[in-house]
């Protein structure tokens, strides 16, 4: 969808107009108001009506907030997309101008659809114009930035939605290399032999039974005058069958989305490079497929991670933390003087149970940094909340025969014990620089909500970009 800002004096013609209302009395056209009242049009999020004769789409919103306006815009655009009209405008008054970011992002995120596997494709050649009294350079800046971010979110959605046979660890490598080429980034790739050489047997073991070779990807964006150094690490399980601790059939469906963390960091570094932000950013992805087979790793195995710690495997379905353990060590061995180390992972079902399907869990050792991450997440439009570590949950991952166990000895608190497992692979100097984001809940949408259609949501991209953007303002 093309999005433009157009001056009112240019007097261009558009097929339709979107009118956003949060009070029916504000509807200027009396006839329209009467029809809308008869149609039981209410001030309620996710309500939009097309009045064909007046060529207007009325969409209501409950309050002047990011969510309400983004949802209203998404609802209006979806209505527009299901017509044969080609262009639509929206007049920006001053209160809408103040919420311009929400309007743009709602429109782009809300009009996303994934039809790569459908024989009949949706036609996508429509134009949205925001009509303003006078040209405003601030609006142009917001538009460009939001477009860059939301296009990356949609590209993340495409990757995650792609079937596991079509998006393998090697596909991750291809995508990374194409980003590296476009923005002239360094890109390092480690295959299984390299993992063995570097003694990353925790990650190596998880992918052993797959026909697709595991890949560790390291992308580097190094601007000349960087003011901070951020390292992003992502869980990129292109499929999680559970391994020998096989998932029940119903739980296996949607596990193509277990690569969401890796996909998020890949698309985040793309945005940062495109916006040319003065922050050094590294993206490290553990791209692995967790399968069964004669050479699969198994419960009772003891694995040694890159930092020398031994891990007792009691469940091969708790594989994400095994992959991240080595990726986190690799990150800290390769990159010195890290300011922020952030990992993104669809790590635990427990996080979904605890927080619901909309919210990311934020974990780490530093109260201050968790707060900083939470504020950035909230400013980005994503939902997140803090989950605190404690000394008792730490004991739940003790092992009788190794340094640590890959699952907890209790049914409760599984999101936090997984986070505390990862803490074993955070070096002393980085303890207070690390944040773990468990995105298992919001990464995949089984029932559409807000501006998220069915399928991958692209969770993590907006949050990570906002966190990095906020560093430029510190
Ligand atoms: N990829 C799953 C976590 C997950 C579950 C993500 C549901 C999205 C939706 C992870 O690898 C896993 O299977 N975790 C296990 C851990 C358990 C064996 C300790 C889980 O959460 O059940
Ligand atoms: Zn698993
Ligand atoms: Zn997993």
Topology of this protein?
Elements: E1 2-7, E2 16-21, H1 30-38, E3 47-51, E4 56-60, H2 66-81, E5 87-91, H3 94-97, H4 100-110, E6 127-132, H5 137-161, H6 169-183, E7 186-190, H7 192-197, H8 201-206, E8 215-221, E9 229-240, H9 249-252, H10 260-275, E10 280-290, E11 302-304, E12 310-312, H11 320-334, E13 340-345, H12 349-355, E14 359-364, H13 367-380, E15 383-386, H14 391-395, E16 404-405, H15 414-423, E17 434-438, E18 444-445, E19 455-456, H16 461-471
Parallel strand pairs: 1-6, 2-4, 2-5, 5-6, 9-10, 9-13, 12-16, 13-17, 14-15
Antiparallel strand pairs: 3-4, 7-8, 8-10, 11-12, 14-17, 18-19
The chain binds ligand BES and zinc ion (2 copies).
One zinc ion is lined by residues 237, 240, 258, 319-320.
Rg measurement, Å: 24 Å
Task: Estimate the helix proportion, in percent.
Answer: 25-40%
The main sheet orders its strands as 7-8-10-9-13-17-14-15
Report strand %: 15-25%
Q: Which regions have little confidence, pLDDT < 50, spanning 5+ residues?
A: none
Q: Structural class per helix/strand content? A: alpha/beta
**Quaternary structure:** single chain
Bound small molecules, deduplicated: ligand BES, zinc ion
Q: How would you state the average pLDDT, rounded?
A: 97
Number of strands: 19
**SS summary, helix count:** 16
Give a verbal description of the structure.
- By secondary structure, the protein is of the alpha/beta class.
- The protein has helices at residues 30-38, 66-81, 94-97, 100-110, 137-161, 169-183, 192-197, 201-206, 249-252, 260-275, 320-334, 349-355, 367-380, 391-395, 414-423, 461-471; strands at 2-7, 16-21, 47-51, 56-60, 87-91, 127-132, 186-190, 215-221, 229-240, 280-290, 302-304, 310-312, 340-345, 359-364, 383-386, 404-405, 434-438, 444-445, 455-456.
- An eight-stranded mixed beta sheet has the order 7-8-10-9-13-17-14-15, sandwiched between helices. Strands 1-6-5-2-4-3 form a six-stranded mixed beta sheet, covered by helices on one side.
- Helix 2 (66-81) packs across helix 4, helix 5 packs antiparallel against helix 10 and helix 11 runs parallel beside helix 15.
- 49% of the residues are buried.
- The mean pLDDT is 97.
- Bound molecules: ligand BES and zinc ion (ZN) (2 copies).
- Ligand BES is lined by residues 240, 258, 315, 317-320, 346, 348-350, 352, 407, 414, 440.
